[in-house]
Amino acid sequence: MATFMQCKGLTKEFAGRRVLDGIDLKVNQGECVVLLGPSGCGKSTLLNVITGMLAADSGTLACRGRTLDDPANGIHVAMRERGFSMVFQDFSLWPHMTVSENVAFGLRMQRVNAPHRARRVQEVLDQVQMGAFRNRRPDQLSGGQQQRVAIARALAVQPDLMLLDEPLSALDARLREDLKHELARLLRETGLTAVYVTHDQAEAFTLGDQVAVMNRGRIEQCGTPEVIYNEPRTQFVAEFLGASNLMPYRRNGSSIVIDDGVLDLPGNGALPAESGQCLVRREAICISSERCCSGDDLVELPATCEQTNFLGDRHEAFATLPNGRLIRGFADGAVNRGGAVHVRFPASAMRFLSD
User: Fold this and answer.
1) Cβ(25)–Cβ(8) under 8 Å?
2) Where in the numbering of this chain does the ABC transporter domain appear (predicted)?
């Protein structure tokens, strides 16, 4: 797949604090790359450097072979000359304009003639299911409808790259869920290349062909949603994605000792590092009041149930191991708070992260 945009060694500082610290990122043609991370990790700053709102302090940014930022050589292409579209979390619609006029605004700036402009506006409004609202003003629309209009406005100009900065965060949970899937459909159908910023894992996994997990101004790991979830490279990625149980381990020859002798497993396949953290996802752990028949791949630990939470379709359970470590999993049958339970998971569910 052809490389559409590439960042190499991008840095940015504010008042002596480094917000972007050597960012390397590649975006392929037709892909949606999601920048995922907690507040303050640098994801919105990186998006603003890509848009041209901010100039990088060092490193390079190129799109389709054209250098957009290269401070060492005095290059910074202005935002208006980059050919990108932006969707913000606060909608940013003109309150005095109708839906059609808002969507047509960028086309007017491009000096598109009136007949073609009208056709294009209707086309994108139909794509976001807002054709029937073309004559309304923003204050006559719900939050979800306003964001659909903002997306239509961004699509109308047929941008080289679409940039979305937490566009669903101002919506309620049900609207976020609906619009998330509609955005994924639109990106697939239009074949647009996009960079999407969010702190929400579900959005990232639904929309992203590639997900770049950011922390403290750096990209900790970039890959498909399946890879970064199932094969995290760092403790931060393991803890940030999903519900995780992390237990310190050390390797003793070809065996793995977990939690200072609580569990000793024979090593299988490639040996992990000498020491680190053993990761087991919540969904891999079964917490039950009954023992089960042991198997070659099954790990079973004695524990005490601390609490259970009803999640609608099942119960989440928390159990404490004899050494005091809290384990999070799902209850298998009835478990009682304070009662003896057994924590079970397949050995194949373990992932090892080196120190």
Assistant:
1) no
2) 5-241
